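Friendly challenge for the regulars: who can give me the structure tokens for this chain first? No prize, just bragging rights.
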Amino acid sequence: QVQLVESGGGSVQPGGSLRLSCAASGFIFGFYDMSWFRQAPGKEREWVAIISSAGSPNYFVDSVKGRFTISRDNDKNLVYLQMNNLKIEDAAVYYCNAVRVGYSYNYWGQGIQVTVSA
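First reply, four minutes later:
Bragging rights claimed.
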């Protein structure tokens, strides 16, 4: 069955870095655009970044531009979110998402906690 499993979350101080990974299985990974979303307590889920099926282009929400990068390994069915210079407002549960453009396939991971505190 389809699975998206996030890993790499944790707790860091402001200015620190984390790398999230998302392992995909159960579908043809190379056909899907991959995104990261996040949801902070009391807030709506927010799109953070997207990487196309071929690996580029990539897009980011303005609040993370210059600090986050997204990449993928289509041979290993992995997508990454490198988060640098983390801010307190980056704290949230981060979700991996897979979408196949032009189809109704839309998959979500279970989410992983990222905590940023002094």
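The longest strand covers residues 18-25. The mean pLDDT is 97. Your move, everyone else.
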